User: Fold this.
Amino acid sequence: MKEYKNKFDKMSNAPVKKLISSLAIPTIITMLVSALYNMADSYFVGKIDTVSVASIGIVFSAMTLLQAIGFFLGNGSGVLISTYLGEKKKEQAQLYANTAFFSAFIAGVILAVVGLIFSNQIAFLLGATQSTLKSASHYLKYILLGSPFILCSFVLNNQLRYQGSAIYSMAGILVGSLLNIAIDPLFIFTFKMGVKGAAIATVLSQFIGFGILLFATRKGENIRITLKSLRPSIKVLLDISKNGMPSLARQGIQTAATISLNFACAKFGDAAVAGMSVFNRVAFLGMAVVIGFGQGFQPVCSFNNGAKNYKRVYNGYKFTAVITTCIITVFSIAAFFFAEQLISVFRNDNEVIKIGAMALKAQCLAMPIVGYCTASNMLMQSLKKSSKATVLALARQGIFYIPLMLTLPLWLGLTGIALVQPIADILSFVLTICLVSPTVKALKKQ
Assistant:
């Protein structure tokens, strides 16, 4: 890609496909490495026993809650930051960036205190059984103690990405994730800390990643995080909340979905919980690429919408929908034929493999349509069409997933659990077509 005078010139004039790809590739690497470090916990803890794997699967819903808050503030401010930069209003962008960052830090401190006092009760509410409660509680306590830095990392990651600084965003997450993979066995096995050691390794690596991301805000044209730029107001907080609501819905409902999954699986034993936990992590590898491309599209969409360059918005959306569909289709075919081998990497237990592989094969049949749904959801959020974006964000793992999880297992047992996500994806695809088509047609006209 040729040299441009500044970020405004690059975001306004660079070829859309190359621009989105250049922003998406660091994000995809970030998502994949993040997925790998989540899987690293499963892999190393899987060397202990099935109960331990089930325990971190239960606490995974708490991690999605932290992601929900971080993405709520990060994307909510990021959409506005990118739009204001497109309008050449950097001071306004600074206001929203700092308000979101310090709001995340305060929320993290509150969660750390709550986790320190109530980890047992929270683990039970997340779906822990008598056999998994102790290890799930230990893992949860340390994760929540690291909340201030975990939340702020999510916020900075998204804000840097929306400013077109995906490389800096990648650096912080990449270092933290690779460090986590490296020190996991040290804390789990060498220090003989088990599940608790996996949590400490995660928090320590997240803290290092946070430091790198904070340093990145002081590089180049990036917006700096400083108390001097903090002027919170009701309007600013409401603006961030409105634009971050789709992300909160998307990530928050994932927490509720994971909890409903844990309770549904608990009736069939720890192997079911462990199998579905491993399945979710393997399936996320494919989703990471789709989400990464979608996030590469978002700053291009928001910036050019602010600059009123609607042709670039439409062309970017069309490219993102097509490329994500192609990628996820290839992943689905590979995962379908190697499902047993992929699940067995994390736990060599025949029952765990059987359950996880069944769910993965079922999901692969519907996974190709997820690319279009993801691109469309991110289009609506980036255009600040918050109501429709929120409905779409709730659909896949909320509006359709939770009712199906409460009913299908009653009729079909474990097979019903495996079918919930693919059926929810098909229904979400139909809803997406209905809600997004008018906006796409309007973009074409503009």
In short: The chain has 17 helices and no strands. The mean pLDDT is 89. The first helix runs from residue 7 to 13. The radius of gyration is 21 Å.
